[in-house]
């Protein structure tokens, strides 16, 4: 089973989730999804294992975005190979439950931020639902898939940007993936400190007010009351500015 981009739980917790959820189905999603087992595409994939070693940082000044063989969930052009932004970049995710402000770090993750901003500018995230909430083992809200299945992506993938010392405290904004160097469009917001391997590119931080918005969603749990699934309180991103 695979998902475009998932946040993968440690093996024991992942196995526990499989027992609890009854082996949720998953799709082939090459690059974005957070989860109780993996933040990413298609439906929750509660049995994923750790994604493994991180990819190298991109060559100075250039980024590579490669077609992944999957049909794009929304038609978009690939990002430019040269990032437009440097340093810190403030963004606001407009949602039906409140604004979620975040600061992106283009100095440490230039290609990730470049892709995220390109997708936002093209309206890729407009009117999309955050499809996955995980409240056990790890604590994340996963978004970025226009199909809301966990399997949708932009039709391209790109490499990780990792130092190997990543941590995932409350407020962390990171990319979901289906393994090393499979980033796409799915991302996750950590609403409480979570133990994850340093395998998910951290490209920003959600502000205090925005974190509060996500935590209120998390308090209501999932649609079926389980530890991993669509949030009971629907979250729809109307746009990112």
Automatic annotation (TrEMBL):
PPIases accelerate the folding of proteins. It catalyzes the cis-trans isomerization of proline imidic peptide bonds in oligopeptides. Residues 74-88 have a biased composition (Basic and acidic residues). It catalyses: [protein]-peptidylproline (omega=180) = [protein]-peptidylproline (omega=0). Keywords: Isomerase, Rotamase, Signal. This is Peptidyl-prolyl cis-trans isomerase. It comes from Nocardioides guangzhouensis. Residues 95-241 form the PPIase cyclophilin-type domain. Gene3D superfamilies: Cyclophilin-like. Belongs to the cyclophilin-type PPIase family. It is an enzyme of class 5 (isomerase). Its EC number is 5.2.1.8. Residues 37-46 have a biased composition (Low complexity). GO terms for molecular function: peptidyl-prolyl cis-trans isomerase activity. Residues 28-92, 219-241 are annotated as: Disordered. Pfam families: Pro_isomerase (PF00160). Residues 59-69 have a biased composition (Polar residues). Residues 1-26 form the signal peptide.
